[in-house]
Design a protein that fits this description.
419 residues, alpha/beta, TIM Barrel, 2 domains, eight-stranded parallel β-sheet, three-stranded antiparallel β-sheet, 16 helices, 20 strands, binds zinc ion
Length: 419
């Protein structure tokens, strides 16, 4: 009845005779299947900036992820609902995801980054705020009050409101509302926050079930629980066990999560270890999404340790600043050496941009501030990352994941990143 299933395919453990937790799989949604591992491009406000959904389909995107916080503020969930849901609204007939808005709302509070290279003297406080950034969000046990970044108006998200907003947005996969902490919060705060996220997860499941029944004329929307616990092994494992086994009785039904989002700020040096803790605790037969991760080395680490899907704004955001991927690393295509370079951005890339345009032309577009620059660079970067994760999937099946990882990363990071 649920129209949402996940089936594990091959595991890295069997194809490479290692203890790695990576696997392939198939997520089935009412709007189509996703072969995993997969990279899901981000269209924050129901558009991948500067690129048509038709182009996203052509470049191999299997699904798109939009942001509940941004769509809540503009144009408002009612309008997306009236349009027939997120996919119809933006002319995308494949699967869609929305994140809960928790990360965006809470990062308004402190302005932190998603992946942080930790060092010994990293400042630790529960009131840490990025330099000169006004605190725009306040968390309490019931929810988060925040100020719109658009017009300064005050708003409030609770687990129930986030579920209502996301049901109206209508994505195939939604995320539970969680408190996203930073690596700088104290251990005591992380403990309290993890408990808050657990209680919010229960409230999300309850609200989700009621909305599913109320809106049974709409395609089923799956709900993923979001795992927190920062860099602490015991907290990470506890969070994964709590949400992984959570069953909330609502009107005679035992409601559980359809999958899980691995959330929170992550220490880059420990990324693989943290993901493996979660993967070890989570039910094997449910999908795991690593939220907000998209750098090539992080994607390999994620896949190797059992993450099934990924999303990140980085490929498109970087493209708009003329930073483009090549197999020899990321380069700034607007730099002088490319002015007379009549090769494609990457000779092995099969994207529309590389098939039809040269580095010299893209260099010219950026230098003359033509808006087509963003379109061509974004198509290339999104294709590069989507295809990279597709190749990881194939390499798991072939038993060549670790060879592929070593070859790709050895070449990609051989030169200093000059983007
Ligand atoms: Zn390309």
């Amino acid at each position: 009845m649920s129209q949402f299933t996940f089936e594990v395919g091959k595991t890295l453990a069997t194809t490479t005779s290692t203890s790695s937790l990576g696997r392939t799989g198939t997520i089935r949604t009412p709007h189509g299947d996703i072969q995993t591992p997969a990279f899901i491009p981000v269209g924050t406000k129901a558009t991948v900036k500067s690129v048509l959904t038709g182009s996203m389909k052509d470049l191999g995107a299997q699904a798109l992820l939009a942001n509940a916080y941004h769509l809540y503020l503009q144009p408002g969930p009612e309008i997306v609902d009236e349009a027939g849901g997120l996919g119809k609204f933006m002319n995308w007939d494949g699967p869609t995801f929305t994140d809960s808005g928790g990360f965006q709302v809470l990062s308004l509070g402190v302005g932190f980054k998603k992946v942080i290279a930790m060092n010994e003297d990293t400042f630790r406080s529960d009131e840490v705020i990025a330099d000169k950034k006004e605190r725009l969000a306040h968390v309490d046990d019931d929810g988060v009050t925040f100020k719109s970044h658009l017009d300064g108006s005050m708003h409030r998200f609770t687990p129930e409101i986030s579920m209502k907003v996301q049901h109206k947005l209508g994505a195939d996969i939604m995320f539970a509302f969680d408190e996203c902490t930073t690596l700088h919060n104290t251990r005591k705060y992380q403990e309290r926050s993890l408990e808050r996220t657990r209680l919010w997860a229960q409230r999300c499941l309850t609200a989700h079930h009621k909305l599913t029944v109320e809106r049974s004329h709409r395609p089923y929307q799956a709900l993923f629980g979001v795992l927190q616990g920062a860099q602490y092994e015991d907290l990470r494992r506890k969070g994964a066990r709590d949400l992984g086994s959570m069953k909330v009785p609502v009107d005679g039904a035992d409601v559980e999560f359809d999958g899980f989002g691995m959330g929170g700020a992550l220490d880059k040096g420990n990324l693989g270890t943290i993901i493996s803790w979660l993967a070890e605790e989570l039910p094997f037969n449910k999908p795991r999404h690593l939220l907000g991760i998209g750098e090539p080395d992080d994607l390999f680490v994620g896949v190797e340790n059992g993450a099934d899907t990924f999303d990140c704004v980085a490929p498109s955001r970087q493209a708009r600043t003329s930073a483009v991927f090549t197999e020899d690393g990321r380069v700034n295509i607007s730099n002088a050496p490319y002015r007379r370079d009549f090769n494609p951005i990457d000779e092995n890339c099969d994207c529309y941009t590389c098939a039809h345009y040269t580095r010299a032309y893209v260099n010219h577009l950026f230098r003359s501030k033509e808006i087509l620059a963003a379109t061509l660079a974004t198509i290339h970067n999104e294709r590069f990352i989507v295809r990279l994760v597709d190749r990881m999937r194939v390499s798991i099946v072939n038993g060549q994941f670790f060879d592929f990882k070593n070859d790709f990363l050895g070449r990609f990071y051989a030169k200093r990143d000059n983007a």
